[in-house]
Amino acid sequence: MFDEMVRKGVIPDVFTYSILIHSFCYQGKMHNALKMFEEMIAKGVLPNLHTCNDLIHGFCGAGDIDKAFQVYEEFVGCGLHADVCVYTTLIDGCCKHGAFLRATKLLQQMIERGVMPNVSTYTCLIHGFSAIGEWNHATGVFRDMLNQGISPNVVAFGALINSMCKHRLTFEAEKLVSLMEKIGEKPQCTVARIRPRILSR
Questions:
Q1: For residue 126, how many other CB atoms are within 10 A of its CB?
Q2: What is the CATH number of domain 1-86?
Q3: Is 24:30 a contact under the CB 8 Å cutoff?
Q4: Which residue from 102, 120, 179, 195 puts its CA 20 to 30 A from 87's CA?
Q5: Which residue in 6, 93, 50, 82 sits closest to 37, CA to CA?
Q6: Which of 73-82, 131-140, 153-162, 176-185 has the lowest mean pLDDT?
C-alpha cells in the first residue's frame, strides 16, 4: 500500500511514516522500522517524539541498546529535542540490559538539557540498581528523587525495600516502609510480604 501510494505521487508525511514504523515495531520487525526511519530523514521528513519513542522502545525490547542509541542520536542530530518519555524509555532499556553507566550518563545529560526526570525515570534506575544488589546506588537515586521534590511510587519503594532486606539492612528498610505510609502510598502485596521479614529480624 505504501509503495502504491508513492507510485501515485502521494508524498508520505510524518504521520504516514510514524504509523508504519509503529506497526513494524509492534511486530518486532525492527530492521524494517529502522529502514523506514532512515528513509523519512533522507527525504527531509522530520520524525516526531512518538516515532522516536516507538523505535527506542522496540530496540530496547529486542535487547539492542546500541541501535536504540543510534535512533536517539539521529533524532537529536536532526535538531529535535527528546522529551522525558524518550529519555525514560532509553534509561529503562539500559537498566534492563545492564548498561548502568550509560543510564546514569543519560540521566545527567537530560538534566543538563533542561529535561527534568519524573518519578518513572527515577524508578527505572532504582529498580535496576536494586535488581543487581546495588542498594547503595539505588539509595542515592532515591535521595536525588526526594531532593527534587518527587514522591516515590510503590514500585520504587518495593524494589529498594526488598534489596535492603536481602542485605539485612532491616532498620533502613523499616524506615522506608514508614516513609511510604507517611506520604500516603499503600504497600502492595510484595511490600506487605516483606514487612514480616523486617520485623522478625
A1: 30
A2: 1.25.40.10
A3: yes
A4: 179
A5: 50
A6: 176-185
